[in-house]
Specification:
- This protein is α/β, with parallel strands linked by helices.
- It has a single domain, classed as NAD(P)-binding Rossmann-like Domain (Rossmann fold, 3-Layer(aba) Sandwich).
- The chain contains eight helices and seven strands, in the order E-H-E-H-E-H-E-H-E-H-E-H-H-H-E.
- A seven-stranded parallel beta sheet has the order 3-2-1-4-5-6-7, with helices on both faces.
- Helix 1 packs across helix 8 and helix 3 runs parallel beside helix 4.
- The longest helix has 22 residues.
- The radius of gyration is 17 Å and the shape is globular.
- It starts with 8 loop residues before the first strand and ends in a 7-residue tail after the last strand.
Length: about 250
């Protein structure tokens, strides 16, 4: 049976950990030549070990204009095109509106919104007819969850960006969709909170999910693959919610 991404060139931003890492491995298993990005030296080293023979690992700040420009110039030099783009890189900063600093808010918007916008701008000349772009949004955009003002706003912006990009790229034969995961065992909460607060956050989230568990990164990756492959060929501008029923039941 032909693999779903046979011969495709795929780029995964924020692909050294969590959902991005799981998706990079799945894209490779489905026949793609995969490039992943990250900016943390420790996770980059770990990814180079775990993705050896699976993906190219490139250090790149997903919210930095110079880094984004160089990344897509490298893709152009090395491959000449791009067939799949998964804009996954993102950060969480958790604090109430009253307590969050302006610098923290700005950093979330820089990485989570400006970064994908810059990537879409740079990627457009490389995206051939039949290419697919997937943006990683979040169900947080739909919730009034305390402490997530910057993160939720950034993910709502991504959902809007996906619609606009889909409309702008449709004549180019490029599809753009968004995935909105619910709580996922990706490590992102552990990065954002102290250990005791993270454990309490996990318990509170599980209690709100009808399936009474978090998603695995592999479960989210399989939905990204669906949106990146011809299985979703008649879908563009869409948002696919993958949250165990949390916002639906």
């Amino acid at each position: 049976m032909k693999r779903k991404l046979e011969g495709k060139i795929a780029l995964v931003t924020g692909g050294t950990t969590g959902i991005g890492l799981a998706t990079a491995k799945l894209f490779h298993a489905e026949g793609a030549h995969v490039v992943v990005t990250g900016r943390n030296p420790a996770t980059l080293d770990a990814a180079r070990a775990s993705l050896s023979g699976i993906a190219e690992v490139v250090q790149s700040d997903s919210g930095g204009a110079a880094d984004v420009s160089e990344l897509f110039a490298k893709v152009a030099r090395d491959h000449g095109r791009l067939d799949v783009l998964f804009l996954n890189a993102g950060i969480v900063r958790s604090a109430s509106i009253a307590a969050m600093s302006e610098a923290e808010f700005d950093e979330v918007i820089r990485v989570n919104v400006k970064g994908p916008w810059l990537a879409l701008k740079a990627a457009t000349p490389l995206l051939r007819s039949g290419a697919a772009v997937v943006l990683n949004a979040s169900i947080n955009a739909r919730l009034g969850m305390p402490g997530t003002s910057a993160y939720a706003a950034s993910k709502a912006a991504l959902r809007s960006l996906a619609r606009t990009a889909a409309a702008e790229l449709v004549e180019q034969g490029v599809r753009v969709n968004a995935i909105s995961p619910g709580p996922t065992d990706s490590g992102i909460i552990d990065k954002a909170l102290p250990a005791d607060a993270a454990a309490a956050a996990y318990r509170a989230l599980v209690a709100r999910i009808p399936q009474r568990r978090l998603a695995s990164t592999d479960e989210i990756a399989r939905v990204v693959l669906f949106l990146a492959s011809s299985d979703s060929s008649f879908m563009t501008g869409e948002e696919v919610v993958v949250d165990g029923g949390m916002t639906r039941l």
